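Good morning N.,

You mentioned wanting to compare the apo and holo forms, so I went ahead and generated the holo version with adenosine-5'-diphosphate. This is what I fed in:
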Amino acid sequence: MSKDTYVIQIPDIIYDENTKICYKKGRFFGKGGFAKCYEITNMANNQSFAGKIVPKKLIVKDNHKEKMTQEIHIHQSLKHKNVVGFYSFFEDTFNIYIVLELCRKRSMMELQKRRKLLTEPETRFYMKQILQGVSYLHHRRIIHRDLKLGNLFLDDELQVKIGDFGLAATIEYEGERKETLCGTPNYIAPEILHKKGHSFEVDIWSIGCIMYTLLSGRPPFESSSLKETYSRIKKCQYKITGNISASAKQMIMTMLQPDPKSRPNVNQLMVHDFLVNGYCPTSLPVSCLTMAPRFD
Ligand code: ADP
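and this is what came out, ligand included:
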């Protein structure tokens, strides 16, 4: 066996020594950078969670450790209906285990892949929740820095839960601009590419990209190469096409402005004409994951 070959060991029964809780490992949900995610059930009371399991063998570099610690440190301090609940974390010889709120309906990425386009009422339904979650984060001085459809998880009621704080950062003092970001955010803002210093406005840019994608069926700066995509982002070169209302277009355009200072903050977005003056369902049936609803 070469030194790079390893066997990842995840036991069927996971034991948290600190709390003496035994979890039974259930179905596999998905795989991230280092993590594998399973449904885990507390054997004492049958409560189910998402168990994010990271093999220690994979986090060898100092910056990986640092990122993991930062992710846990930030996520642990959060409690909001639109943020994935963080319950506990622990480790054994082989792995680090993070116990999270279970989001059974996967993420908005699978939803968008399946549906391509969402209706405007559905977009309002999801955007309001995304903004409530981000408003909470920004008030706590946390920038998520990688808001994308795949990090917007959905529970059984199709409530949005913001997750994956692997690239998140805390603003330590009023007016601080972050200079570095280790990683590649999906909907990366131009000021990050220009390495000019960045702050909360990068999340607003990403939310603009998310809203564009939900209503157009594809991301605003999509191209066949990352280099070309980055060049389009720097030039803010995108078009809004398709059957999209004037107020939705305007809302996207305010978020996708090259100058971060020109973008609205999350509180201003929450009262945007598109969200306030248009039909927004109070709940959506799960059939909306696969079929467009009819609002009549
Ligand atoms: P990474 O930080 O390594 O990218 P993610 O947080 O993206 O890991 O999680 C990897 C996968 O695990 C996701 O794509 C998703 O399928 C699943 N997952 C993560 N968190 C949850 C959750 N709270 N509920 C259900 N599935 C989840």
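The first strand starts at residue 13 and ends at 16.

Happy to go through it together on a call whenever suits you.

Best,
F.
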